[in-house]
Design a protein that fits this description.
The chain is mainly alpha-helical. It has a two-stranded antiparallel ribbon. The protein contains three helices and two strands.
């Protein structure tokens, strides 16, 4: 049983190191792409994933459904970063505000 626990601890260490390396790479790429001021890169406390967080306010005006024209450049740069990780599981998620849409 001691060996199993040692293996579990070693696996945790390996996963943590891999997640930290991924975090550093993605953080560096956001800086290189010049988007580090508008995105946050975070790593979860269990070292299972790295998240690129982009505020909805960067993408949309409140109560609007159309992506802001100026944010499309940021989205393209995030896409460029994600292309480097085709062998990783990538989940894209979005949320809206709770203000009703205004017809334009």
């Amino acid at each position: 049983m001691v060996e199993i626990e040692q293996l579990k601890q070693e696996l945790k260490k390996i996963n943590k190191e891999a997640a930290e390396e991924l975090y550093e790479e993605v953080t560096q790429m956001t800086e290189t792409e010049g988007i580090d001021e508008v995105v946050d890169v975070v790593i979860d406390s269990k070292y299972q994933y790295v998240k690129i967080y982009l505020s909805g306010a960067v993408l949309f005006d409140s109560a609007k459904a159309d992506v802001k024209e100026e944010s499309k450049v940021v989205l393209d740069k995030i896409g460029n970063i994600l292309k480097n990780y085709e062998d990783h599981l990538i989940k894209i998620e979005g949320h809206t505000d709770n203000i009703p849409l205004v017809n334009s």
